[in-house]
Each structure stands twice: as C-alpha cells, then as structure tokens.
Amino acid sequence: MNVVYPGSFDPVTNGHLDIIERCSKQFGNLIVAVLNNPSKKCMFSIEERIELLKQTTSHLQNIEIDSFTGLLSEYAIEKDCTTMVRGLRAVSDYEYEMQMALINKKLNHNLETLFMVSSTEFVF
Q1: b/e map of 68-103 (b: 16 or more CB within 10 Å)?
Q2: In the chain, what are the helix, strand and coil shares in percent, each to the nearest 5?
Q3: What's the domain count of the chain?
Q4: Residue 103: which CATH number?
Q5: Which domain holds residue 64?
Q6: Model pTM?
Q7: Over the stretch 69-94, which tens digit does the pLDDT of each residue have?
C-alpha cells in the first residue's frame, strides 16, 4: 500500500519529521510529497525542500521523497496511493483538514484521509 504525506514543508520541521517517522513505522511505503505551487512565495525552493527532507529522513528505509504540482487527488492516482496522512497539532487544524479531506474524497473516491495527532512536544 502506498501512503502519501503531502505538504509544502517550507521548511521541514521537527513536527513534520515526527509524523514521517511515526508513519514509517505504520505503513510499508510512505511517499512524502512536496507541493510545488508556483503562485505561492516560499522561503525555500522546491529543490531545497526536497534536499532538506532527504537529509532529515535518510535514516528511514521505506520513505520516498517526491514533489507534485496541481491537485493532490490526481497525484494520488498517479502514484497509486489510496491513503493520505495529515498531521493535527490543535483542534483548529481539524476544521480545515476535514474540509480538504472531503474535497479530495469527492475528486478521488479511492483516497482515504487519516489524521495523525502530533506528539505532545510539537503541539502548540
């Protein structure tokens, strides 16, 4: 099963790494997908974000770092992903993430969204 953990990762944080490490233990193949949104002004280039992720996840064997432009629902089809993981830091994250999960489900009925609660040291 391919699982995708999407995000801008601008920059990758300890909270992101926590979710990646925990997902790595739960799933056989995890694709960390960096969103390349040309209309969004980022602190780091897409190449820098990918390189930072590769460096911080080099100790994990079942991780693929990739990037995508466009809709996540279409990317999931291309990569044969049926599950997406999203991290939740606070209750306020849930409302936005729930709306996005419903939109993605409407666009790709095979894509399930799993919410992973952040470890306590990364909750604000």
Answers
A1: beeebbebbeebebebbbbbbeeeebeeeeeeebee
A2: 40, 25, 30
A3: 1
A4: 3.40.50.620
A5: 2-122
A6: 0.95
A7: 999 999 999 999 999 999 999 888 99
